[in-house]
Amino acid sequence: MPIQSRKTRQKDAIRAAFINADRPLSPDETLSYAQKEVEGISIATVYRNIGSLVEDKWLTPVEIPGESTRYEVAGKEHHHHFHCNECGKVFEMQGCGVPVKPKLPRGFRVTGHEFFLYGVCADCK
């Protein structure tokens, strides 16, 4: 029974990391947050639990061109992201203020889009 309890505590700490950060996290960032709750949690445990949470559709991957994948809580409305060039953190931007009217070839139809902003966050400014 204690082993099950430990696994639950680890997964709970990982979920809490995403909820408390309220932004996309890398596995390393997730580990830093989770270690505050569960001493001795490993990066392998974080990767395993992130995989499980993605499979359960609780987390969704955030792909960043030229960077490692971050993850965020799934089920949010369509939104975009800001990547700080200084600290490397990724932040969510509310909604979609991007006017999308691409000139597509005849017969083509847009089904989605990606938009990423880069700059310096308030903490690094």
UniProtKB/TrEMBL annotation:
Cofactor detail note: Binds 1 Mn(2+) or Fe(2+) ion per subunit. Binds 1 zinc ion per subunit.
GO molecular function: DNA-binding transcription factor activity; transcription cis-regulatory region binding; zinc ion binding
CDD domains linked to this entry: Fur_like
InterPro entries the record matches: FUR, Fur_C, WH-like_DNA-bd_sf, WH_DNA-bd_sf
Requisite cofactors: Mn(2+); Fe(2+); Zn(2+)
Alphabetized UniProt keyword annotations: DNA-binding, Iron, Metal-binding, Repressor, Transcription, Transcription regulation, Zinc
GO terms of biological process kind: negative regulation of DNA-templated transcription; regulation of secondary metabolite biosynthetic process
Residue sites binding Fe cation per the record: H78, H113
Protein residues bound to Zn(2+): C84, C87, C121, C124
Alphabetical list of Pfam families matching this protein: FUR
Family note: Belongs to the Fur family.
This protein's name: Ferric uptake regulator, Fur family
Gene source species: Granulicella mallensis (strain ATCC BAA-1857 / DSM 23137 / MP5ACTX8)
